[in-house]
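Reference record:
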Amino acid sequence: MIRLLRDWLARRTSTQLASALAVLAALALTGSLVLTGQAVRMDQRQQAALSALDDYAAMVSKLGVETDFNPSELTAGDAAYLSAWLGAFQSGPGRDAGSLEETCRTGRGGAGVRYIRASVGKPAGLAALETAPRERLPRLGDNVWRVKLARGELCPGRTVEAVVVRRTVGSLNIIVGRVVDPTGRALGWAVLAVALTGAVILISGLAAAAFARRRLTLAITGVSQALDRAAVGDFSVRAPEVGVAPELTELTVQANRTLDRLEELLSWLRDSADQLAHDFRTPLARATARMERLAETGDPDERSRLGLEAAHDLKALSRAMNEAMALREGEAWLFEEVRLDDLAASVAELYEPLAEARGAAIAVETPDGPVAVLGVRSLLQRAAANLADNAVKFSPDGGTVTIRAFLIDGKPSLSVGDQGPGLDPRMLSDAALRTASAEAGGRESHGLGLTFVAAVLRRHGAEMTIDDAAPGTIVTAQFSR
């Protein structure tokens, strides 16, 4: 049962659940109203039964004083006497003579009803008490009955409910009762108030469900519109984060944050693609020109030289393509903590044999504590290796390549410096140099070189600067986190 209920709830929308709660609340109020009415009715019947028992005790006591009325001694005269006596008792001291009239006029209860039937003579009192439909009420006492008097039997214009005591005293069958008070004006007002409250709860619940549905629909529509626009490359639309559906604020904030991130990454990829396309032109054009010259020349030495140079250009393009593919692989989107000091040490260890073969040395400078950033380990390692490869490649004999991991104003930084020919000082402030792999001062970078490094650093929110080391060049990457 619990599993079925859980499955049913899982398939219901919030609006349906709100509507169901409103209906249940209205039904609960209706049920409480019914139970309250039954309790009040039972209390009224109990009060009528107590009054009827008092009347019965008083009547029997009075009859016992007046006469014994044994069956063998009862005569028609005695029966006539009982009829007259009952009339006198009905309107005697302590009896409300106008109660029956008031009951018939207003419908209020409390009026006494009585009936006596002897073995001889005519019965006295309200004969309908003996013939009317009745129901035994054992919870209210022995020989206590509920009698329903039809319209005209007691009152000409209304039906009446009475609680009576039916007992036999000697040869007399005595029925003594009281008219039960209706639910009353107070209960009527209570019924009306509860009914109105139930209606208000039901209507307000349904209205709240409709409003919630409308609000959720608007919020979801806003998110859908933002995602639809993003699907066609338009990131100018964002979902409303507040004021529409507070319960969806976390969702809309997360959706907008995702769209912001996607816009940032797509912008990064677009800029990187533009830079890569620009840098591919130079080796492609160079290789094309050499191949054309190779086809025109007949000098074997010239053909060999042009072939080797063209092969070198094509090999550089292959390396560039591999680095470009690294920028679009899924691993480029997964960030983790990367220790720049460990990264500097591993890159130095990787290029130390190459540096020794060229007669150069590699020095690593790191602080005592860790220098960590949040990034993609493989991309940062490729970028650092690119810088180290260029530095070793253009270091003179006896030169030193210095790889440093350090902090500047609490911000992690990594730099690679060499003692090579350096770059033209006029080019150091040129922004195009930061994203190019062109020749400068007789120096050509490896693969995509600075283009790849700049793209990786931009992906990590880092800033790259190129300075003159006098002699040589120093490239510094400063991270914001």
Q: What stands out?
A: The CA atoms of residues 318 and 436 lie 17 Å apart. The chain is about 55% helix and 15% strand.
